[in-house]
Amino acid sequence: MSLTAILVHRAITPAEEILNALILVEEGRILAVGPREGVSIPRGARVAEMLDATATPGFVDVHVHGAGGQDVMRGTSEALEVVAATLTRGGTTSFLATTVTSATEVLCRSVSGIADAITAQASRGGADSPRAEILGVHLEGPFISRVRRGVHSEEYISAPAPDLLRRLLDAASGRTRIITLAPELPGALELIDAARSMGIVVSVGHTDANYEQAMAAIHRGARHAAHVFNAMRPFGHRDSGVIGAVLTRPEICAELIADGVHVDAAAMQVLLRAKGTEGVTLVSDGTAATGMPDGCYRLGDFDIAVSGGVVRNKEGKLAGSTLTLDRALRNIVSLGVRLKDAVQMMTLNPARELGLEKTKGSLTSGADADLVFLNRELEIVKVVTRGVGLV
Question: pTM for the full model?
Answer without folding.
Answer: 0.97
